[in-house]
Each structure stands twice: as structure tokens, then as C-alpha cells.
Design brief:
With 303 residues, the protein is mainly alpha-helical. The chain contains 14 helices and no strands. It starts with 5 loop residues before the first helix and ends with a helix.
């Protein structure tokens, strides 16, 4: 199949069932005998938690860091693992599981427990990674200790404010698992077809977290290109440029020697350049996807 639109090649990340099926198909493509039980159980655990059906936790409330974001990360991580395998840098079964379980749980720290009475969970932006680690320790007790330890290191490395050497790895496989998921966390979200619209949600999360740096939504939009330049440096230098191996995945799976993630990010950034040239009072008219603008306007109006 030939894709003119790179977004179409990335698939539907709103449908968790479809994403889980794709993850399983991708893993079986490079590890035919792999037991998907741990991954399936983690999908199920996260479903219950996000929907408010896990005892002790409220339903997930954050607007940007939601199930769609997790889906795009775990799907991209699976593609990364496939690409690494094709490049002769594949992982064994335990490290495949740790990479994908870590992808599923990397933002679970935004969940609020029953005793946390106010906010959406965005107030935990600074601490959500460590909260996610505690969640994994509490809810994955049946994992072998070494697999749990690797899963935790995968989650820790998604704290992109810190250099990767703050996490100490025991071996190269463990490092690759963490680097693959950290890479997927960054490029998965920025390649999403609705990424620019969802930045409006991200602004409200930053506001709630009382993070400085943005005067308003427009300031965030205007600084996003510079943010990507920093992100690109982290991807290429800190995370060893692993995203190049996505080309091998798409070549085998979709018959195209292309990195659809990189192409989608470029499209988003090109359109953003158009948006920031528009008068501020007319910018939101440029965002048509996902009903995001309507929801944002309702929030601003207190609705």
C-alpha cells in the first residue's frame, strides 16, 4: 500500500483495541513465539485504571496525557522494537515486555487516587514519572524482579527533563528497551494528526501544574518549533538516533522505505509555521481536528 498522507500510515490511536491488536501483530512479526500475556494484562490494568475501575483510583482526568497519548506511544514503541530487530539490535522476550509495559505505564502517574480531592492530575506533572514507578511496583508484583526493574527504568527514562545517564542500566538490552520507549514517547505524540490541536490541552495542564514559561496558549504555539529543535537534539544525541530504524519497520510492514513519523512531524511543524503567522485572534480557526478547539473554548468560558 502506498501512502500519500503519512498520518494515515500511523493508524488510529484513538481505538485501544485496534492498537493492542497492532502491537501484538508487530511483536509476532519479529518474535513469532512471544507470549503476549504480560502485555495484554498491562493493557487491561491500564484500561481499568483510566476508566476509574481500579480500586483506589479516580478516572483519568488529564486532557493531553490521556489514553490516546499512551496508545500512540506503545504502538510507536512496538514499531521501534521491530526496527531494532531488523537492524540486528533486537531484544529478548523479557526486554520486549519491559519496553512495552513501560510504554503503557509511562504516564500513569497522572492518575489521582481517591484521597486526592482536587485538580485533574496535571498538578503532578513534575512528579508523575516517580508516581508511575510506584504504580508499577504496586500493581505488577507478580513480575520477575529483573523484569520489573527494567520496566521501572523504562518509565524513568521518559522524564525528558533529565539526561539519560541519570538512569543506570545493567546491560545493553535494558538500555535499548528504555531508549526505544523514550524515543517513542517523543515522536509518537508530535507525529499525531491532532498534535497541534492537542497543544491547547497541554497548555491547560501546564497552567494547572504552575509551570512557568508560557504567557498564554499563543506563547506555547510560538515556542513549539524551538521545543522540537531541543527534542530533535535529545532524540539524535541523548537517545542514540534510534528512530532511524522505523524506516526498516515500515519497509517490511507497509512496503515503503519511509519514516512516517518524521514525515508527519514535518507536516505538523510546517503547518504550525503557517498558524503562528496568523493574527492571534484568528489562530484557533486554523485548528479543525478532533473537536479540540470547541472543548478548549468551553474550558475558557468555564463550561
Amino acid at each position: 500500500m502506498t501512502y500519500g498522507d503519512p498520518f494515515a500510515a500511523l493508524g488510529n490511536t484513538r481505538d485501544t483495541g485496534e492498537v493492542e491488536a497492532q502491537v501484538g501483530e508487530i511483536v509476532r512479526a519479529f518474535a513469532p513465539g512471544h507470549d503476549l500475556t504480560r502485555i495484554a494484562d498491562t493493557f487491561s490494568l491500564l484500561d481499568r485504571a483510566i476508566d476509574g475501575n481500579l480500586p483506589g483510583y479516580q478516572k483519568l482526568k488529564t486532557l493531553y496525557h490521556n489514553r490516546t497519548h499512551t496508545n500512540e506511544v506503545v504502538l510507536c514503541a512496538a514499531r521501534m522494537l521491530h526496527g531494532l530487530h531488523l537492524a540486528g539490535q533486537g531484544l529478548d522476550g523479557d526486554h520486549i515486555d519491559a519496553a512495552l509495559m513501560g510504554a503503557l505505564l509511562h504516564d500513569v502517574g497522572y492518575l489521582m487516587n481517591d484521597e486526592e480531592a482536587s485538580g485533574t492530575g496535571a498538578q503532578f506533572t513534575d512528579s508523575h514519572v516517580l508516581r508511575g514507578v510506584e504504580f508499577a511496583r504496586r500493581h505488577l508484583p507478580a513480575l520477575p524482579p529483573d523484569v520489573l526493574d527494567t520496566t521501572i527504568k523504562v518509565i524513568l527514562l521518559t522524564d525528558h527533563r533529565k539526561p539519560p545517564d541519570w538512569v543506570k542500566f545493567d546491560n545493553l538490552q535494558q538500555q535499548r528497551a528504555a531508549y526505544a520507549t523514550a524515543t517513542a514517547d517523543l515522536i509518537g505524540q508530535m507525529a499525531n494528526r491532532e498534535y497541534l490541536e492537542r497543544l491547547l490541552f497541554l497548555y491547560f495542564e501546564f497552567q494547572e501544574a504552575q509551570l512557568g514559561g508560557f504567557a498564554d496558549i499563543h506563547d506555547l504555539l510560538e515556542k513549539t518549533t524551538a521545543f522540537y529543535r531541543m527534542t530533535k537534539a535529545r532524540l539524535d544525541q541523548d537517545l542514540n538516533g534510534l528512530s532511524i530504524h522505523l524506516i526498516q519497520h515500515f519497509s517490511q510492514q507497509q512496503g515503503a522505505d519511509r519514516n512516517f513519523y518524521a514525515e508527519s512531524i514535518d507536516r505538523n511543524l510546517d503547518y504550525l509555521q503557517h498558524v503562528v503567522k496568523v493574527e492571534r485572534q484568528r489562530r484557533l480557526d486554523c485548528f479543525k481536528r478532533g473537536g479540540v478547539v470547541e472543548e478548549v473554548l468551553a474550558i475558557k468560558d468555564g463550561g
